[in-house]
Design goal:
With 318 residues, the protein is an alpha+beta fold. The protein has a domain of 115 residues. The protein is built from eight helices and six strands; from the N terminus they run H-H-H-H-E-E-H-E-E-E-E-H-H-H. Strands 2-1-3-4-5-6 form a six-stranded antiparallel β-sheet, covered by helices on one side. Helix 3 crosses helix 4. The longest helix is centred in the middle third of the chain and has 61 residues. The radius of gyration is 40 Å and the shape is elongated. This is Helicase.
Length: 318
């Protein structure tokens, strides 16, 4: 039988695992000031922050990095055990600088994305919308030349035959759908100044009529004779609303474009703090190295002093 261990129980050892006969247990955690405990608990704290960052999704940046596996030197451990305040400051600065670098990396990624949009995306989108507006304006002029008649039906041509009655035109359109043998669009005639293309979507099992002018205007067909004609008329009469929508979209895109150009020039807002703490970190590391050199000098002096004593002991033993 394979024994399965619950990961959440591993942290407290055998205290709260199955097999402990005590109903209640007390878990004590001891920390001694000015010892290596400080570094150990800080490592645990930093790992827990990383785990919480992943599980809660409250990170101020898009990327989460685990702690840097930097080991303390022997001199730093000794300084920590003697209560050297530079060790604590170094560890705090290490975390703060790493965090600021991570935030800056995410910030710069957003800046590069904005720069790319300023150079490529927005100009292309603005040009496309502007071209669509011009084409739509031309289609509106065409539709105005062939307005919907109030007292009679506008002639619809299907496969070369002209239909002057709405019902007959609707029936002819449905019959033409039944003759479709391919999904490829087929030109079937014209209506109110626009040519009509018939197509079939095999996935959705639907027929479409596309009114072709400067732009293509797709209309879904149904089974109702009069309803299909009404849908086509509604599409032609809805050009004005589409034009308003495109103009509003162009204005919004231009606003986004101008905003992006300004945002792309922004500097990292915490750059001064990052530089200051990086500089201070370098200074603290230099102080720790000086402490290490002083220790080496002391060790050398002690070794030199021990040599004559060893010689005297050797001479006396002879």
């Amino acid at each position: 039988m394979t024994r399965r261990r619950v990961l959440s129980l591993q942290r407290a050892g055998r205290i709260i695992r199955q097999g402990n006969t005590n109903e209640k247990v007390h878990i004590y955690r001891y920390v001694t000031k000015g010892t290596f405990d400080t570094y150990m608990w800080q490592t645990v704290e930093q790992k827990q922050k990383f785990i919480s960052q992943i599980f809660t999704s409250k990170s101020p940046v898009r990327v989460a990095d685990d702690i840097d596996p930097t080991a303390l030197s022997f001199a730093e451990i000794k300084a920590l055990s003697t209560g050297n305040p530079h060790i604590k400051e170094k560890m705090e600065l290490d975390m703060e600088v790493s965090k600021l670098k991570l935030i800056k990396s995410s910030f710069m990624s957003q800046i590069y994305d904005l720069e790319d949009k300023v150079v490529k995306f927005y100009p292309k989108q603005i040009a496309e919308i502007a071209a669509r507006i011009k084409s739509l304006e031309k289609d509106i002029e065409t539709a105005k030349q062939y307005p919907k008649a109030e007292d009679k039906f506008n002639t619809m041509t299907i496969d070369g035959f002209g239909y002057f009655e709405k019902e007959k035109a609707g029936n002819a359109l449905i019959e033409r759908c039944k003759k479709m043998t391919s999904e490829e669009p087929v030109n079937i005639g014209d209506y109110r100044g626009f040519s009509m293309e018939l197509s079939f979507d095999s996935f959705q099992k639907l027929f479409y009529v596309t009114l072709v002018g400067c732009l293509s205007h797709k209309v879904e067909l149904g089974t109702d004779v009069f309803g299909n004609i009404q849908r086509i008329d509604n599409a032609l009469d809805g050009f004005e609303k589409r034009l308003e929508f495109e103009k509003e979209k162009l204005a919004n895109t231009n606003t986004q474009y101008e905003t992006a150009k300004v945002e792309a020039k922004r500097a990292f807002p915490q750059e001064a703090e990052l530089q200051e703490k990086t500089k201070r970190l370098a200074a603290v590391e230099a102080l720790l190295k000086m402490d290490k050199k002083d220790d080496n000098v002391i060790d050398t002096d002690v070794s030199d002093a021990e040599v004559p004593q060893q010689k005297r002991e050797y001479a006396m033993s002879r």
